[in-house]
Amino acid sequence: MTEPVLYLQNIVRTYQQADRSLEVLRGAELALWPGQSVALIAPSGAGKSTLLHIAGLLEKPDEGEVYLGNEPTAHMDDAERTTRRRLDIGFVYQFHHLLPEFTAQENVMLPQMIRGLGKKIASERAGELLGYLGLGERVKHRPAEMSGGEQQRVAIARAVANSPRLLLADEPTGNLDPKTADHVFGALTQLIRATGLAALVATHNLELASRMDRRVALREGVVVELD
Ligand code: ADP
Question: Residues with beta carbon inside 6 Å of ligand 1?
Fold first, then answer.
């Protein structure tokens, strides 16, 4: 049987705030399968970013286990978590966080070179990915010379540069006008289908969410299936 790319098991996360503790996640469960795109829809403050940070090994839950493939991660130290993140997980945020002094191509090469690939291979892969995302003519441009939608497509190319198994995106089109958001989202879903990666995408945009394979929400700290 195929194993899930990501399995969140009974995730509990409580934040201590000044005068109270806030139980953001109260036993959240979620399995993501290869090639599947899942929209995470919930109002602000529901815990979407917390869930994505925990899924991305950026934050540890108070209880529960995060499995990447069939591998539990709770026992891993920081160095191992960083390695897993670098190899297995791609992130896309609302703001692109591209490095301004580097070209689009160099921004997509960097994670590959950090991983140890040579410049030539990294450069070829960056060129291919950017071409696939419709940015063939922009490879030598710096972020400031590109539109918001183009910058975000470069961020998507960077996120998948190391062929991760899991893509996590936090409001990836939240900062774009509807037409551009539509275009960027189309590029993202096409890439998910072509590469077979699993993606969890937090979004407020119901129209875009309807184009994904599956929709889930966070209610009272647990994941519920929509539809
Ligand atoms: P969303 O992404 O759905 O908007 P978040 O996961 O960012 O929700 O936040 C969920 C709740 O947890 C919010 O009320 C937020 O204020 C609180 N929260 C998030 N991070 C922290 C933190 N580090 N310390 C205290 N409270 C936090």
Answer: 15, 17, 22, 24, 42, 44-50
